[in-house]
Amino acid sequence: MSNEVLYILLPDYAAHEVVYLSQAIASDEFALKENPKYVNKVVAPTMEPVRSIGGFRTMPDYSFATMPKDYAALVLIGGFGWGTPVAEQVAPIVCQAIKDGKIVGAICNGASFMAKHGFLNAVKHTGNGLEQLKQWGGENYTNPDGYIHAQAIADNNIVTANGSATLEFAKELLLLLENDTPERVEMYYQFNKQGFCNLFPN
Known about the structure:
single chain, alpha/beta, two-stranded antiparallel sheet, globular
């Protein structure tokens, strides 16, 4: 299995939603890892730079046409692009990933997109509220009973989160990926959640 974690970035993506996960994969608390278990890669509609909602431009590693078929996880980063026509190109990619048993993560509007295409109908999940999932999903969303009002949920290799749950989203994916021991993943989570002063008081 490939060790690449693929991040789907659409135009006007939410850059903050990728930070904790990508950082924990590429580095530890001291420096960049010499031999990381996974490698972060960006996938965008084309090989042109993709712009975040904050105005940063990211150069993709792959386009939808050139992305590999084998990878460790597929991560849908939220933002405003999920409500645009270009997002529809992602549906067959997600469908194949789920069929192949890949780990799939979706945060914020990425989770709403998952509801829109029926990808949450067999798993426990969360997102930007049940009403938004119903609104985006319409008739394709048939699992409101599977909705859990939580920051992030992992079920059957699918991780969903609301837009304020960047850190919780990262934690659930890091555990599924076995990026590190559960104890070290928890330490990373608590450090970023509680802050240096709370964990290391004078």
